[in-house]
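Sharing a chain and its predicted structure for anyone who wants a worked example. Both blocks are below, sequence first, tokens second.
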Amino acid sequence: MIRVVVVDDQELMRVGFRMVLGAQADIDVVGEAGDGAQAIELASQLRPDVVLMDVRMPVLDGVEATKRIVADGTARVLVMTTFDLDEYVYAALQGGASGFLLKDTQPDHLVSALRAVASGDAVVSPSVTRRLLDRFVGTGGPPMRDTAELDVLTDREREVLVLIAKGMSNLEIAEALFLSEATVKTHVGRILAKLELRDRVQAVVLAYETGLARPGLG
């Protein structure tokens, strides 16, 4: 059973998410919060598997709440947003969120994304992730992080990391590089371990911040 806390300052949104998630046999909405401070308290008390987190809220916003929840190790966080809040989402990803969804996401996509995050994966939507990074990581300027961080990677691992940054799945990477999916999974695992990254979301951010991947390329 996947235990979830829903966080949104609009009660109608919380009700809607509860209805969608509560209809699933393997998901249990164990709590709701209307601001980031309440979210932190509930996460600490209930120890859910996933916190579905709104971004702009009173008292404490979702970005700061995400950072604190992830730092405390109480739950994984899936951020909800709209296009006009892109800058907040990027900050949330840097803060440790396991991905993000648009608030108008179809119910089945919400459910599958939540299951993926609960299982330890990260939700990286190719189109929305690239839009975020194109706007907020850089537009051709100097890297935001030292490229020497990537020296531990082999040439093949760098290739794989670039494709991860494009939002490709393991299967898509396998097809692009003419590898088996199992081999790609091994490469991804080694990349995360060598760079001391938690998941694919952090890998995407690092690839752009070091300049390995560039907005508008590929």
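Comments welcome. The chain is about 50% helix and 10% strand.
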